[in-house]
Automatic annotation (TrEMBL):
It comes from Lentzea tibetensis. The chain crosses the membrane at residues 35-52, 87-105. This is VanZ family protein. InterPro entries: VanZ-like. Keywords: Membrane, Transmembrane, Transmembrane helix.
């Protein structure tokens, strides 16, 4: 497996921990913190997935956003609730990851052409 996959695999494993930790293991935080965490987590997944050149990564991440919320709602031992708003901020995070990746790539291109 190429090294460029390692950040994505790490981010994916982190997402499983964050999204599927039972409610009893989720730390208390100020209201809205979970939305920030969802946004940043999916931005990280998108950026590292694009870096790894995972085929169809953006479509897969949108599906993962929805499926993860459904699973949180239906998997009884998790004792978590699915939230469509979490899925929405996941998709916003994916967009943020695309913007960040695009910006970083353009900066890298600019540095190469200015030499």
């Amino acid at each position: 497996m190429p090294r460029r996959f390692l950040p994505f695999v790490t981010a994916a494993l982190l997402s499983v921990v964050v999204l599927f930790t039972p409610e009893s293991g989720v730390p208390t935080a100020p209201p809205g913190t979970d939305k920030v965490v969802h946004t940043l987590l999916f931005a990280l997944l998108a950026a590292t997935g694009l870096y790894a050149k995972v085929p169809h990564v953006l479509i897969l991440l949108v599906a993962y956003a929805g499926v993860s919320e459904v699973l949180q709602a239906v998997v009884t031992p998790l004792r978590r609730s699915g939230d469509w708003l979490d899925a929405l901020v996941d998709v916003i995070g994916i967009g943020l990851g695309v913007v960040i990746t695009t910006w970083l790539r353009s900066r890298r291109r600019d540095r190469r052409t200015s030499r």
